UniProtKB/TrEMBL annotation:
It comes from Desulfofundulus australicus DSM 11792. InterPro entries: 4pyrrol_Mease, 4pyrrol_Methylase_sf, 4pyrrole_Mease_sub1, MazG-like_dom, NTP-PPase_MazG-like_C, NTP-PPase_MazG-like_N, NTP_PyrPHydrolase_MazG, Tetrapyrrole_Mease/MazG_pred. One of its GO terms (molecular function) is nucleoside triphosphate diphosphatase activity. NCBIfam families: mazG, PRK09562.1. Gene3D superfamilies: Cobalt-precorrin-4 Transmethylase, Domain 1, MazG-like. Residues 282-355, 423-479 form the NTP pyrophosphohydrolase MazG-like domain. GO terms for biological process: dATP catabolic process; dGTP catabolic process; dTTP catabolic process; dUTP catabolic process; methylation; response to stress; TTP catabolic process; UTP catabolic process. Keywords: Methyltransferase, Transferase. This is Tetrapyrrole methylase family protein / MazG family protein. Residues 29-232 form the Tetrapyrrole methylase domain.
Length: 533
């Protein structure tokens, strides 16, 4: 047998090993038991019998209130406490523990004892259960009382009402659920408590009550106090037996319903070392073209009035937002949570007529308020030009419309579309004059002026020039492809037909489009689809 208490490195350096009976084959078996929350009375009878009879016992840690009692009762064991002193992180420590147990178990049966319940927040046990059978080991797990049981008992909680467990060291990966009670475990130091507090403040009000629980159910050690969340890291009595309980917070429960987590996790995996080589090579700049392409494909789906395609294309566009957020997260700038938080706060702040007490009579007053709020957000400083807010990277048609809108907000605009229509006629005359003079540079300028004037007319008529031209482009594409198909049916090239024949097919394509649109409208009215319900 071992000495009553030794560490794994002591055994490697000459500590006693158990004496096995010769002539008998030793069974390769690991029995995993739980030592309960900390009081000797929490040990189950079956676990006690195993501990009393076992020849080899390994404790994940000797830092547990029941351990001194085990020593007093003559139970011998080794601990893995030295692994915590030399390991780089918990994943490496748990991996080394499991590998050591696998090697030791090859020489005969052993018992691996862990605090609490073996299947509650015990990663080493998870590794043993997954890999042990593949290594030819028999693995048995004996249940025990967990820290959750004694916390529920101490606080009078019924888990059936909803209870969510979160590892305090993994709040960047495991999110709390404010709609139910949450137990945050592994809050073993004031430093961890500070990190936990900051993370929880993203989900709860700063003054939300928190029950701080140390050594629940352990006579002489139990301590339970209630504090507001913002005071959490001011306490100085955290230890390895400390957990937190946050009661439900219904007023913020809805904040965690958005199912973005799975997509964020997929993108993080694609960008990881074991992910996709192409995704790992991308940068904000290399992704610019894809962001633009996806935005235009959304516009195409809208123009086609195809709701199924629109759903798909919006997903592709959302992926680009997640991609850029992941790149920023890797550099420590921001993540998707910051993106959602910023735009949510901005929309609430800029709509005081909805979320506040401001009264407005029409949409024009909404725009005036919007600009005033933007000015205050900028510290009251006016930009060098109001046109600065229009990105130069926008497509020319969209940029022209945006510039005109900016100028219109300060009164530089036609009273109505009539003035803009006369301007189009004027610019068209100047184009004709430039053509007659045969000056290409002048013609380019006048054509640009004509296009700008048409965009202005579109704006004053309430039509988005970008969408209008995009729709025309798509119609041209479909109709010309119809002409190509008709030419193929005749076994000839398009160029071999007369212009009159091509025009006839063009008109035929238009009539077919109109008939198809009428049928779609009819069926949409008769049979509501997935997106029209």
């Amino acid at each position: 047998m071992y000495n009553n208490f030794c560490r794994i490195d002591d055994i490697k350096n000459g500590g006693e090993r158990p004496v096995f009976r010769t002539g008998l084959a030793m069974e390769a078996k690991v029995t995993v038991v739980g030592l309960g929350p900390g009081a000797p009375g929490h040990l189950s009878l079956s676990v006690w019998e195993v501990l009393r009879k076992a020849e080899r016992i390994f404790l994940r840690t000797g830092q547990h209130p029941v351990v001194p009692w085990l020593v007093k009762e003559g139970i011998s064991f080794a601990t893995f406490d030295n692994f915590y002193e030399t390991g780089r992180d918990f994943q490496e420590i748990y991996r080394r523990m499991a590998d050591t147990l696998f090697r030791e178990a090859a020489g005969g049966p052993l018992v691996f004892a862990v605090p609490g319940h073996p299947l509650v927040a015990e990663e080493t046990v998870g590794i043993i259960l997954e890999e042990g059978p593949r290594r030819g080991l028999k693995v048995e797990v004996l249940p025990a009382m967990s820290f959750v049981d004694v916390i529920c008992s101490a606080l009078g909680l019924d888990p059936a009402g909803g209870l969510h467990l979160v590892d305090g060291l993994r709040l960047d990966q495991q999110e709390p659920v404010p709609g139910v009670g949450n137990i945050i475990f592994q809050v073993y130091s004031r430093l961890v408590a500070s990190d936990v507090k900051l993370a929880l403040m993203e989900y709860y009000p700063d003054s939300h009550p928190v029950m701080v629980i140390r050594a629940a159910g352990v006579p002489g050690l139990e301590r339970i106090e209630k504090h507001p969340l913002y005071e959490l890291d001011r306490l100085d009595w955290f230890d390895h037996l400390t957990s937190l309980y946050l009661p439900p917070c219904p007023e913020v429960a809805g904040r965690c319903r958005y199912p973005l987590d799975s997509l964020v996790e997929v993108m993080a995996t694609l960008r990881s070392e074991k992910g996709c080589p192409w995704d790992r090579e991308q940068t904000h700049r290399s992704l610019r073209r894809y962001l633009l392409e996806e935005a235009y494909e959304v516009l195409e789906a809208i123009d086609q009035e195809d709701m199924y395609k629109l759903c798909e294309e919006l997903g592709d566009l959302l992926l680009q937002i997640i991609f850029h957020s992941q790149l920023a997260r890797e550099k420590g700038f921001f993540d998707i949570n910051d993106v959602v938080k910023e735009i949510t706060e901005k929309m609430i702040r800029r709509h005081p007529h909805v979320f506040g007490s401001v009264k407005v009579r029409n949409s024009a007053e909404v725009l005036v308020n919007w600009e005033q709020i933007k000015a205050r957000e900028g510290g009251g400083k006016k930009p060098v030009s109001i046109l600065k807010e229009v990105p130069r990277s926008l497509p020319a048609l969209l940029q022209a419309s945006s510039l005109q809108n900016c100028a219109a907000r300060v009164g530089f605009d036609w009273p109505d579309y009539r003035g803009a229509l006369e301007k189009v006629d004027e610019e068209l005359r100047e184009v004709k004059q430039a053509i007659s003079r045969g000056m290409k540079a002048e013609l380019e300028k006048e054509l640009g002026d004509l296009l700008f004037a048409v965009v202005n007319l579109s704006r004053l008529l309430g039509v988005e020039a970008e969408a209008a031209l995009y729709g025309t482009i798509n119609r041209f594409r479909r109709r010309f492809q119809y002409i190509e198909e008709r030419a193929r049916q005749h076994g000839r090239e398009v160029s071999s037909f007369t212009l009159d024949q091509l025009d006839a097919w063009w008109e035929e394509a238009k009539r077919m489009e109109q008939a198809e649109k009428k049928r779609n409208n009819f069926h949409a009215g008769r049979k509501p689809g997935r997106f029209s319900e």
